Inverse folding.
């Protein structure tokens, strides 16, 4: 595990999946049709327990300007600055369940709240799986 720092808040345009994990791909498709020109933007997935035994999942892309999410009809969300612990999963498309295994390992780390938010940052064929730490 490595420690990663977001030095500033990151404003996002989001689309919430209607189910997890089945609705994740559709949420990303809807995000790409809602937000034009994704080139050069950071791409994220956000997830957390809903308190009822399921997960809430949001497909997200970094805003180009303040208020872009609202202008495009996407959901605005602010990813908090701070420190996160993370694991990189390479070639995740060849083993999508590896993302869940990475988050299980992160949530089981000492001092991590099991109800915390998971953050995925997609970079090429890799995904960086992270959880916030205090």
């Amino acid at each position: 595990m490595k420690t990663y720092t977001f030095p500033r808040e990151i404003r996002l345009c989001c689309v919430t999946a209607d189910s997890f994990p089945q609705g994740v791909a559709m949420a990303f498709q809807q995000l790409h049709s809602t937000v034009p020109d994704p080139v050069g933007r950071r791409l994220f997935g956000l997830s957390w327990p809903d308190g009822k035994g399921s997960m809430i999942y949001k497909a997200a892309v970094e805003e180009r300007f303040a208020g872009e999410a609202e202008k495009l009809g996407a959901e605005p969300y602010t990813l908090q600055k701070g420190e996160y612990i993370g694991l990189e999963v390479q070639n995740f498309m060849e083993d999508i369940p590896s993302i869940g295994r990475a988050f299980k390992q992160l949530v089981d780390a000492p001092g991590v709240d099991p109800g915390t938010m998971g953050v995925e940052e997609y970079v090429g064929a890799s995904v960086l799986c992270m959880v916030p730490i205090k």
Notes: The beta strands are 2-6, 10-16, 43-49, 55-62, 75-79, 82-90, 118-123, 126-132. The mean pLDDT is 92. The chain has one domain: 2-132. Helices lie at 24-34, 68-72, 97-107.
